[in-house]
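task queued by scheduler; priority normal; single chain, no ligands, no partner chains; default sampling; output format set to structure tokens
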Amino acid sequence: MLNKVEYKNLNSKQKENYNFYKLSGVLADYGYSSMWLNDDWQGADFIATHINGETYLRVQLKGRLTIDKKYCEKNIHIAFRDDNDWYLYPHDELMNKLIEKSYLAGCASWDDKGGYSWPNIPKKIKDIISIYKL
């Protein structure tokens, strides 16, 4: 007999695997097949290839909405789950939108360390990121 696991009871590596397979199922609905990478190849946790044979995405899987300068100019997409919703966004595109709106300006984490993340999507960002909801 199969018993469902409780996400909160998983360790961090188990959560990463769980999220990869959950997201892979969602991406399959859009014609993508996903392949996990054993190491972060060019900043990506996995590659998603489209059935058209031409499109592929380098994806970094995160636990929350994240912007980080280390992903700049690497053609990386960031994926994360917010409750039951999945988001997949081109890192640089969203970063530029947030910078344009001054949502990162003055944040010590961004200014000093080059990265920023939100445990929950702020209302002011909800409209911007809604176009990336799967």
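post-processing summary
- Strands lie at 32-41, 44-50, 56-61, 65-68, 76-82, 85-90, 115-118.
- Helices lie at 12-28, 91-100, 108-113, 123-129.
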